[in-house]
Task: structure prediction
Amino acid sequence: MPELPEVETSRRGIDPYLCGKTVLATRVRQPQLRWPVSSQIIETLAGQTITHTGRRGKYLLLYTQQGCVIIHLGMSGSVRIVDSHQAAGKHDHVDIEMSDGVILRYHDPRRFGCLLWSELPVEQHGLLASLGPEPLADDFTGAYLHKRSRGRKVPIKSFVMDSHVVVGVGNIYANEALFMAGIRPQTMAGAVSAKRYTRLVQCIKQVISHAITVGGTTLRDFVGGDGKPGYFQQSLLVYGRAGQPCKQCGTELKEIRQSQRSSVFCPLCQD
DNA sequence: AAATCTCCCTGTAGGC
DNA sequence: TGCCTACAGGGAGATT
Result:
């Protein structure tokens, strides 16, 4: 499941192959993604030059002079750089081919992702306009979370996973960060102190920046290959470890369901 | 406004 | 071995 670190790693991987290149053709084999890929994007993109790439939360952005391609990888999506000799596989839904033959290939078995065209400024696009701060940015602080959470009865885990509060904290990192901060996922967001939010923000920044570092070394196969990410093999403290002993105290980790998502926590280390 | 529920999709894991 | 079902999850949009 691509979380923010994987999207950022993907962006860095494809960036040098796309910047300054002109789009020759776009091929859409399967338009039925999270939202249908507009057939209009094919003619819109043709002849346009990619000026730079960007990212907002888990949205990957390809800028041109006229607009921006917004790509979301959903939970099974990936992008990689191939050439025209590599046959498209079953779930290779979109190719964006540059005039030098380099192809950006969008792959997404479960089709939870999307690929959209937006006018500039893309920040005003409906999907991006009301997003919260970037987790690694300076404006994401304990004080900010504390202020935003006052009066909120939602569990803290749902709160930090809300992209209107902060972007890019998916289920895995929410579980990990709450463990690191010693906070139970079911704690009401409005009942958590400023001090504990400061700790939680430190943990979120730490786990995400570490994952970007690890992703940079393991998710490197952007040219050719199968583009499969590998960094989920990194040692996780709680996610996916229900029933196993806590790495900190040995207590059996518990699992609960919150908003149709699994939460794993240590009953001793988190309160 | 805030909280909760539903839905999109298919690969994988578990049961028999 | 193979078939069947349950489950996983990001997040927008609908519903309560």
